[in-house]
Design a protein that fits this description.
Elements: H1 16-45, H2 52-69, H3 86-95, H4 102-124, H5 139-153, H6 155-160, E1 162-163, E2 173-174, H7 186-217, H8 232-270, H9 275-280, H10 282-308, H11 312-331
Antiparallel strand pairs: 1-2
Helix pairs in contact: 1-2, 1-10, 1-11, 2-4, 2-10, 4-5, 4-7, 7-8, 8-10
Length: 332
């Protein structure tokens, strides 16, 4: 799901709303960048975690890390008086201020989350469908497809993100994801909202509901051995593991849908409104735009906390890396 710098008011001064959003963006960047970096480091340096799921989680962390590092939400409100020449301005708008790169990383993250859901579904619900299973050899191809499709889907954004020569006191960049330019790019906005918002949400719901059904309704998914050797302790451990897995999957689904769907739905609905309606309700729509955009970016902050740090393996990996680093420093 793409995301660009939101609208700014025509006032030349910064409002309390500007400061509030800048602080919120700063918080998720300051916490989210090291959190995603830790996930990448743990997977890279822990051989036992070189699995298909963890490789996908590392790819998700890479996408989220880039999203947070180049997110303009911390400073976009301060650019209302900035004047840019054409060549340098187009470069800054495409890669920083207007930001056509963030949509690529957010789209890649949405595809990766979908791939993780499908991989978990096939592994737990369809374990005998070996031809469909994602193996270590197939992971590089899947990751390459994810990033290629994400880049291709954002070509209209890369092309149209340019300097606004006559912006006066408004924002210096023209971008599709704005209240000024959305009506010129309705097809692109609908395509992105459907393919990187609605469809991934449906895939995630289908996969995780299938896992829930196998855990608690049909009980075809078991986390402990079955048969005569199954002790009462094993049964209790099985129930405990099921509850933990269900809790994690529920959080994953809620997180993705809460952070991603509002942005998709907002712009899909926006494309159905008449121009006069948007103009008359501009201030309200501007605030909603800012809120859904922040939620979309915040997904990159929440992902490492929910996907990785709720896992005992990641917590142990973090302890090992931290302990080794401290031991190295003490030996110097």
């Amino acid at each position: 799901m793409a995301s660009n710098t939101s609208e700014v008011h025509n006032h030349s001064y910064s409002t309390g709303q500007d400061i509030a959003f800048a602080v919120m963006y700063s918080f998720i960047v300051i916490i989210g960048v090291p959190a995603n970096s830790i996930v990448i480091t743990i997977v890279r340096k822990t051989p036992s975690m070189h699995t298909t799921t963890n490789y996908l989680l590392m790819n998700l962390a890479v996408a989220d890390l880039i999203t947070l590092m180049i997110c303009p939400g911390m400073y976009d409100f301060a650019l209302k008086k900035v004047r840019l020449d054409k060549t340098l301005g187009d470069f800054i708008c495409k890669f920083f201020a207007g930001n056509a790169v963030v949509p690529i990383t957010i789209n890649a993250a949405a595809l990766t989350v979908s791939a993780i859901a499908v991989e978990r579904y096939l592994a737990l619900v369809k374990p005998f469908y070996t031809r469909l299973r994602l193996t270590k050899k197939r992971v590089p191809r899947v990751v390459a497809f994810i990033w290629t499709f994400a880049v291709l889907s954002c070509i209209p954004d890369l092309v149209t993100n340019t300097t606004e020569p006559n912006h006066h006191s408004t924002y210096p960049c023209k971008r599709p994801w704005s209240l000024d330019e959305y009506f010129r790019h309705k097809g692109f906005l609908i395509f992105t909202g459907v393919f990187f918002g609605l469809i991934p949400s449906c895939i995630i719901f289908f996969c995780y509901f299938g896992i829930f059904r196998g855990l608690f309704i049909t009980e075809t998914i078991c986390t402990a051995p079955k048969g005569p050797e199954r002790s009462s302790n094993a049964a209790l451990e099985d129930q405990r593991s099921k509850k933990q897995l269900f809790k994690l999957l529920l959080w994953l689904m809620i997180l993705f849908c809460t952070c991603t769907l509002p942005f998709s739905i907002f712009f899909i609905c926006l494309t159905t409104l008449k121009t006069n309606t948007v103009v008359n309700n501009r201030q309200y729509l501007f605030v909603v735009h800012r809120m859904v955009r922040f939620l979309l970016t915040a997904n990159s902050f929440f992902n490492p906390l929910v996907y990785a740090f709720q896992s005992a393996n990641y917590r142990e990996g973090f302890k090992r890396i931290f302990y080794c680093k401290r031991l190295t420093e003490e030996n110097k």
